[in-house]
Amino acid sequence: MREAELRSAVLAALASIAPDIDVQSLRPDQPLREQLDLDSMDWLNVVTALHDRLAIDIPESDYDKVATLDGIVAYLGAARRRHPPHALRATAPAPDDLPCERHEINGTAVTIRPIRHDDTPLEADFVRHLSDDARYMRFMSTIRELPPGKLKYLVDVDHVRHVALVAVADIDGKPVEVGVVRYIVDPAGTGCEFSVAIDDAWHHTGLAGILMAALMNVARKRGLARMEGIVLAINASMLRFARQLGFTLEHDPEDRTTMRVVREL
After folding, report:
1. Spatial contact of 265 and 225, defined as CB atoms under 8 Å apart
2. Cα 89 to Cα 215: distance, rounded to the nearest angstrom
3. What is the mean pLDDT of the segment spanning 21-36?
4. Among 101, 178, 241, 258, which is disulfide-ready with 199 (CB 3.0 to 4.6 Å)?
């Protein structure tokens, strides 16, 4: 694929994530996340869209190489030359500093641990069984089935720039995912953006607090100074939960439908 075709594919992927932006006006040598105001989940969607269009994986460890439009095009071109037709992505083992804890919640054994590649079926079932409201609050979409590309990037994480902890309950002798938290380190490497999702039946059990405490502890031990997240303004329960965890709430002057929650670590 020629450079012009790669650039066109990248612009199409960006346009699918940020439809209100004229992607043709982007400055190719400037950071995309600043020009498009992409949060971490938006960026994950960009990477997923590129994978779906070009069958090339971009691991989190390489995100600094694809910060600009020129950088993405150069990276994809090199990946195709190295590994036509795809660039395969290896799954590294989780670092030793991540928690693996067992809790008893309402009489059910729950394990908090790093997410693994083989958790793909658990993650797919978890999203599938969320209520429409819960899926909208988490993904800002009511999509019931995650596309394979997005599912892959939610499960195949490097646990360095992208950390994900999953809560797995033993229900009738079968492992069931009942919650997940994750953070993605910002481009500067000093802070991170988090997200949390809990199975509807496990709301108000304390599970969300356990998961977030574990995630914040990892971020703090790794020297990150700040954690923040984007929350829909109508998600009163999540905003209340964030306050209880010590986050401050900030209005987004450019988007009244969302709020930013921020906590110094």
Report:
1. yes
2. 25
3. 83
4. 178
